[in-house]
């Protein structure tokens, strides 16, 4: 009998062999099997108590007669057949938190790039122009972080050494947070925070409440020297309003790891702005992906045996 089945589909170009090896190292007394083909997946999940991978479809779920836990290798789980998993009594966990260090480091890179105008230096290098240009310092600025989850916490933690004032925006401001100030999502509080923001960092899930959170009105409130950083989801920002804001210089620029639509069409205007940095939803990439995820799953396997609470459970 196989205890844990690792499905074949990987993520971020990382091999599932590495994931299976990390699990075996942490769970030497368990049988961990890597399914390399569709037929192996159907065969191995039949009596497995735990299955882990990027997704599981209805057909594979039907074949998993003994399944107690599906450990998703993504932080997002909207693509999973949650109703069917719930009906079968299968617990679901996700990878929330494992990307926080790498995403926070990328955010810091964006902020330092705009503070020191490094993108202007790169432009002059491409053009072989040896001319000085003006730059800023990150210290003394105000960063507003929307979302106080693992990513938001990691961003604020890394800003502490830069003498940056921080404001956090979260659904439950009464819970506080690591920022100097915490406010809620009501319009007045949000606009008050935006009006004194130099760097706006979006690190919140995409929900009905956050879809289009930053639109025309918000760009009008942000100071013209402010910079937008989005490592959340593209839909948190109204893309047309962003393009308009950049064109009329309502903001200094933007750094986007996510966009709406994603990927951007080749003829989209965001490609053409020198003050918009675009990365291909890559902030979460890290060689520590599998070790961190394996640590969570190994803990949850032991918790499952003991009837204890599972880490990162989403249903």
Characteristic key phrases:
Rossmann fold; 34% helix; alpha/beta; 315 residues
Architecture overview:
This protein folds into two domains: 4-98 and 286-306, Rossmann fold (3-Layer(aba) Sandwich); 100-278, NAD(P)-binding Rossmann-like Domain (Rossmann fold, 3-Layer(aba) Sandwich). Helix 1 (16-26) packs across helix 11 (289-306) and helix 5 crosses helix 7. The two termini are 26 Å apart. It is built from eleven helices and twelve strands. A seven-stranded parallel β-sheet has the order 8-7-6-9-10-11-12, with helices on both faces. The chain has a five-stranded parallel β-sheet with strand order 2-1-3-4-5, sandwiched between helices. By secondary structure, the protein is an alpha/beta fold. Helix content is 34%, strand content 14%.
Brief synopsis:
By secondary structure, this protein is an alpha/beta fold. It contains eleven helices and twelve strands.
Radius of gyration: 22 Å
CATH topology of the largest domain: Rossmann fold
The tally of helices reads: 11
Based on Cα principal axes, name the global outline. Answer: elongated
Query: Which H/E pattern describes the elements?
Result: EHEHEHEHEHHEHEEHEHEHEEH
- Strand count, sense and closure of the main sheet? 7 strands, parallel
How many domains make up the coordinates? Answer: 2
Q: How would you state the average pLDDT, rounded?
A: 96
> Proportion of β residues?
5-15%
Please state how the strands of the largest beta sheet are arranged side by side.
Answer: 8-7-6-9-10-11-12
GO molecular function: oxidoreductase activity
Domain D-isomer specific 2-hydroxyacid dehydrogenase NAD-binding: 109-283
Domain D-isomer specific 2-hydroxyacid dehydrogenase catalytic: 29-314
Keywords: NAD, Oxidoreductase
């Amino acid at each position: 009998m196989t205890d844990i089945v690792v499905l074949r589909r990987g993520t971020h170009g990382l091999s599932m062999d590495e994931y299976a090896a990390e699990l075996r190292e942490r769970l030497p007394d368990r049988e961990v099997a890597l399914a390399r083909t569709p037929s192996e997946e159907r065969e191995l999940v039949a009596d497995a108590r735990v299955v882990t991978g990027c997704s599981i479809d209805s057909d594979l779920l039907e074949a998993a007669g003994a399944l107690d836990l599906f450990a998703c290798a993504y932080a997002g789980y909207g693509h999973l057949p949650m109703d069917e998993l719930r009906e079968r009594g299968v617990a679901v966990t996700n990878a929330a938190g494992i990307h926080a260090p790498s995403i926070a480091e990328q955010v810091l890179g964006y902020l330092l790039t705009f503070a020191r105008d490094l993108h202007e230096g790169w432009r002059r290098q491409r053009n072989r122009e040896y001319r000085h240009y003006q730059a800023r310092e990150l210290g003394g600025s105000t960063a507003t972080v929307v979302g106080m989850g693992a990513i938001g916490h990691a961003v604020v933690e890394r800003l502490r050494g830069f003498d940056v004032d921080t404001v956090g925006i979260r659904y439950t401001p009464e819970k506080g947070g690591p920022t100097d100030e915490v406010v809620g999502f009501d319009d007045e509080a949000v606009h008050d925070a935006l009006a004194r923001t130099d760097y706006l960092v979006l690190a919140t899930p995409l929900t009905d409440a956050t879809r289009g959170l930053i639109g025309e009105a918000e760009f009008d409130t942000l100071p013209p020297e402010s910079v937008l950083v989005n490592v959340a989801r593209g839909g948190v920002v109204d893309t047309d309003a962003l393009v308009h804001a950049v064109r009329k210089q309502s903001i200094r620029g933007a750094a986007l790891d996510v966009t709406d639509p994603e990927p951007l069409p080749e003829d989209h205007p965001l490609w053409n702005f020198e003050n918009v940095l675009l990365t291909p939803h890559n902030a979460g990439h890290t060689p520590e992906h599998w070790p961190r995820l394996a640590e969570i799953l190994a803990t949850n396997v032991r918790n499952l045996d003991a009837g204890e609470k599972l880490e990162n459970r989403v249903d």
